[in-house]
Amino acid sequence: MNTARKARPTLEAAVEAWPLRSSPRTGPCGGSQMQVVAVTLRDGPFSGRGEAAIPAQPDAVATVLAQIEAVRTDLKGGLDRPTLNRLTPPGVARNALDCAFWDLEARRSGKPVWRLAGLPQPEPLVNTYVLDVDRPETMATMAQVHASARSLSVVLGGDLLDGERLRMVRAARPDVLLGVRWAVAPRHEALHRQMSSLQAAGVLWSEQPASEARDAPPGRPAPSTPLIVGQAVREAADVAKLAGRVDAVIIDLDLCGGLTEGLAILFEARRLGLKARVDGARGDSLAMAPAFMLGQLCDGVSLNGPLLLAADRPVPAVYRGGTVWCPPELWGHPAPATDAAVAPSSPSAAIPPGEGSRDFQLQQDDPGEGARPPETVQAMANISALRARPAKQTSDWFGQPRGLTVLFLTEMWEKFSFYGMRTLLIYYMTKRLLIGQENASLIYGLYTAFVYFTPVLGGVISDRWLGRRASVIIGGVIMAAGHFMMAFEPLFYLALVVITIGNGLFLPSLPSQIRDLYSPADPRRSSAYNVYYVGVNLGGFLAPLICGTLGELYGWHWGFAAAGIGMVSGLAIYVLGRRHLPPEPARTGGAAAARSAGSGARRFNRFALLAGVAVTVMVFRGAYEQTGNTVALWADDGVNRAIGLGDWSIPMTWFQSLNPLLVFLITPLLIMRWARAATRGREPSPLAKMAMGAGLVGLSFVMLAVVSWCSGARQAHWLWLAAFFLVLTVGELYILPVGLGLFGRLAPKGMQATMIAAWFFACFAGNLFAGALGTLWSHISHAQFFLLMAVPTGLTSAVLVLLDRPVRRLEAEGREEQQAEARAA
Description:
Blueprint: E1 10-19, E2 33-43, E3 46-53, H1 60-69, H2 72-76, H3 81-87, H4 92-109, H5 113-116, E4 125-126, E5 129-131, H6 136-145, E6 151-156, H7 162-172, E7 177-182, H8 188-193, H9 195-200, E8 203-208, H10 210-215, E9 228-232, H11 239-242, E10 248-251, H12 253-256, H13 259-271, E11 275-280, H14 285-295, E12 301-303, E13 318-320, E14 323-325, H15 339-342, H16 374-381, H17 402-432, H18 437-466, H19 468-485, H20 492-509, H21 528-554, H22 556-576, H23 590-595, H24 600-624, H25 630-637, E15 639-640, H26 658-679, H27 686-711, E16 716-717, H28 718-746, H29 752-774, H30 782-824
Parallel strand pairs: 5-6, 6-7, 7-8, 8-9, 9-10, 10-11, 11-12, 15-16
Antiparallel strand pairs: 1-2, 2-3, 4-14, 13-14
Helix pairs in contact: 1-4, 6-7, 13-16, 17-18, 17-21, 17-22, 18-19, 18-20, 18-29, 19-20, 19-22, 21-22, 21-26, 21-28, 24-28, 24-29, 24-30, 26-28, 27-28, 27-30, 28-29
């Protein structure tokens, strides 16, 4: 915070009325509109905005304006924010003034509020949606209408219908985390009487007014329940009075009087071992922005004020996919203020109902490094239990955790080495070692198969003994040695064996770290494997262009050596960036890990269904893996690669770069398409996506069959081969990264590398199958061969459709396990 001189700003205050979409039956809003007080502090070229909602009470507007006017004279004398908190009582007026001071400080100092306050850089927060008290069937219907919600707070009326309300909401949404708040404040004994209904519905937390909790005897509601009782407080001094009586504090900036007091309450709660959450039931997006900042350190947020409004600020808070996000330009950013961003007269687009609801996250994260206001330093000094924010919560590299970038680049260079060698392999055997096509196809199939078989053993070794980091490093060193051995012809077969051994340790241990970079409720988690898959294909794109060109034009050994250099580069990135990776999980052995997946039939069903998916992927890869085998041979002798520039033709190895290049171009479009579908509740299930992908790959081979048949003895134009790779790549993106992500998400805790290895075991069997199918290339026509390749992909698509519903149930069970983990947090 810049304290070189005290600000002497001028004060502007105005009351604004925002129309409500509907009038809630309970809560702080009354009538058809919500009134807010907007404060602007101007200091020369700088201005700061703050806002707070005025309660629907008689004379509330006059009282708030009088409290704000009372500080106008003090402002001329150099009033600063800490002094404001001593002079003004907690409440709406102080909230608006305090937040305006924070915004002004950000603009004067050139630092955003999150940095001034010592908060982590803001990222989208999981939001909890509130179901207002109503008839049980109406509340159940509303729970289903808000399809994006993964966390709901049910308002109870304190009457005989509360048990039925909870039962019907839970039946309507068995997948959500559930909390309650009360329209009529319950006394301690009333909460005990409701305990059976709360437990039956799986309620995790309860919010109740401060007065009742202070009057209650010490002790939690019941030792046997995970219920977390939360309490709203007005100031930090009140927190100590609640210790031993409640589990959490609820921070409402309108109640406590701004972000400054909210931070003090939070740190005092942490010092006393209490959880904390932020509540923002009133106000538009400008009022939510300071609470959103504070929520970065809290265990949950419920910032639903803007969702009640018929219109909002031109730059509104974004409610999407169950999260809330306040854009930097809305509040607290050092860029010059724009009146258009907060102008009250400009209506915003309507906010879809149901947006902005997700998990009530139970975690305790440290505020991280950075300058903190003087008034919170003393409180922070007494907090020894706070731990540093884990790397998995840092997201300042390309909008993703830093660890994902490290894994992305490591995988990119590993795949550069793998695909660089694989691009040359079939040509090297047939042109340099003079191995016949049938035998070369079998060797190719065996090698690419065992590349995916050894990870089955490597995954178990990683989970039980070595750990993921050691497995990546040891495996990478062995693979690099194997690639360099490929440069020497007498070591050809030994080099293939060495590469497969190293790959067995490396391959499952790297992607199995992705899941732990994100919290279970992080909205980026579902697309992380697609982002990672781009890294796979970036290496695959560069490898044929570099290794392929070196091998084809200057000598095969140069290409293999380049692949070895790529592997060494990937290892260096991994070692240098290891501080950004998730912590190594405990290695408790497979039996204990398997028990975490459930017991009995449930555990068997999980592994049986995943095995069924793996078998279908195995059949699919029998056709898909022809791209580096028989399709590569067809590119050599069946495709006219001349492009009309003299005698120059496209090198045959370059076509292997088309697939990864198209992955770069198509992946962002698919992610945007799926994200839009998810916001409407229409995103296809993982198995539905995979079925579509298998169908598209089958269609690409049918196209090659037609082209080959029509060409006869003539060579086909190279554009047909490019079109084949386009259709195949779209299908690949629907099946391979989606399937990898499915196995990663459903892996029991402690068995991540093993389950990723199981996915790769399907690749092993599929590549063996592909090698066997490749032996038919010399015995039937090219058109017949390509048409035959459409058969396994068609079978895969049909079986995946049949497995779709059981796997959807399996994913629902996985969400239940995450809820159980949250309850135990």
